[in-house]
Fold:
Amino acid sequence: MSNAEPMLLNGIEVVGYGYFSKALNVGLRTLYAYASETNAQRLANFPRPVTPAGYRTPLFAKTDADRFIEERLAGSSSGKGRVKALPLTREQQDAASEAGKILGHGIDLQDREAVRSAIYDELKLPVAATTKETQLPSVNTATVKRLFKQTQHPFLRELLVYRGVSV
Structure:
């Protein structure tokens, strides 16, 4: 039986990650990030599993899953359960402005290619990690945090502040 279909467990209708994936049209990796206790992308309103901690395949009450799915789709801009980004905070706006000043030109901090070019081509910072698929220097938040710890470069600090990471 696929975990995309509800089943009964101790009299409760439960579902797995496949149910969320199918309803929201998002990948399982996205859902793992939404549910992870250790990931910065965790969504506070993602349901808690009804199975014990450490259970190999977490299961969720279907009613909680349906509520979460409904909330995601109500705020969706793409029809895929992804929600438009919130407007930038004043701190994020200031960080973006400061990052541009450090580089000497404006930069869209949401553009991964522009950020990659700034970090590795313009600033000539060392490559801390590469992407699995393209083998390009990584600009994900974990890599930027690690690189900031190594170099303490002010551009990286502003980038992290822009991404909502306290430094």
Notes: The helical segments are 17-24, 28-35, 62-74, 90-103, 112-122, 141-151, 154-162. Residues 97 and 106 are 8 Å apart (CA to CA). Strands lie at 7-9, 12-15, 60-61.
